[in-house]
Design a protein that fits this description.
about 120 residues, mainly alpha, Helix Hairpins, 3 helices, elongated
Length: about 120
């Protein structure tokens, strides 16, 4: 399971790098979204989040604290999701305003701020 998740993380990072190197603002935003999803999945895999049916604080009868699930990666991922949602909303608003002003989606057309 960890090998499959590692492969998915690698594909997300590779897709994000490919999209962020394109000349379109929309592809840049999609690349940033893929990058944030890959980082969230990386935190999840590194934090031992692949255990099933194990509670975070209260262990099953006879279980030692070493068998409990770690709640810290889950909290970090939840915080990262909220931050990436706000960042994505901000970037989409900037891209919409730039598209209204410049009438283009190409990053090469956005080299000058004279029209803003």
């Amino acid at each position: 399971m960890i090998l499959l998740l590692s492969l998915v993380i690698g594909l997300l990072f590779a897709g994000a790098a490919y999209l962020m190197l394109r000349r379109s603002v929309v592809k840049l935003i999609l690349g940033l979204i893929l990058l944030s999803h890959g980082a969230n999945l990386l935190i999840f895999v590194m934090g031992d989040g692949v255990r099933r049916g194990v509670p975070a604080f209260i262990g099953p009868d006879g279980a030692t604290p070493a068998m409990w699930a770690d709640p810290l990666p889950q909290a970090l991922i939840l915080t990262a999701i909220v931050i990436s949602f706000g960042f994505t909303a901000f970037i989409l608003a900037l891209a919409y305003r730039a598209n209204q002003t410049i009438k283009s989606d190409d990053l090469d057309d956005m080299t000058s701020t004279d029209k803003l």
